Amino acid sequence: MAEKTEPIVPVKKFGALLTGWLVLAIVANIILALLTLSTAAQVAPRDQGWVYLSGALNVAGAVCAIAIFRWKRWGAYGYGACLGITAFLNLLAGDVGSVLRGLLLMLLVIGLIKPHWAQFE
Fold first, then answer.
1. Of these four, 15, 83, 105, 114, which has the most CB atoms within 10 Å of its CB?
2. Residue 5 phi/psi, 5° resolution?
3. What whole-number distance in Å separates Cα of residue 113 and Cα of residue 53?
4. DSSP letters for the chain
5. CA angle 38, 42, 43 (to 5 degrees)
6. Of 36, 62, 35, the residue nearest 49 (C-alpha)
7. Is 36 within 8 Å of 54 (Cβ atoms)?
8. Domain ranges for the chain
């Protein structure tokens, strides 16, 4: 009687830098969302929408980082979109330094994910 053999499934494994970045991104986005949303009451009513949008982008960033951790391509696209929208909002606010930091972060994310991209679902 022939033995049943299970198909060999390649083990997906992130490198230490990507794993560390993902943990940092998840924790930092959750903390930033809580801090940002807690300040909404202290902002002028006409600016509260921007505060809520910023907090929502942080929540979305955390969700997308978790999706990346679970090997989902949509997480990488979503995280890039969150960074892009945040950079655009910072540009509208005139904060060029934050725009540059956001673009550098986007390049870092691409560089860390690119070697593993074929393994994403």
1. 83
2. -115, 140
3. 26
4. -PPP-PPP-PPP---HHHHHHHHHHHHHHHHHHHHHHHTGGGS-GGGHHHHHHHHHHHHHHHHHHHHHHTT-HHHHHHHHHHHHHHHHHHHHTT-HHHHHHHHHHHHHHHHHHGGGGGG--
5. 105
6. 36
7. yes
8. 16-119
Q: Rounded to a whole number, what is the distance in angstroms from the first to the last CA of the chain?
A: 36
What is the chain's pLDDT, residue by residue, as a tens digit (121 residues)?
567 777 676 678 888 999 999 999 999 999 999 999 999 999 999 989 999 999 999 999 999 999 999 999 999 999 999 999 999 999 998 999 999 998 999 999 999 999 999 999 9
Scanning the structure block, which residue is given the tokens 């930091």?
101
Provide the whole-model pTM: 0.86
Altogether, the residues listed in the chain come to a count of: 121
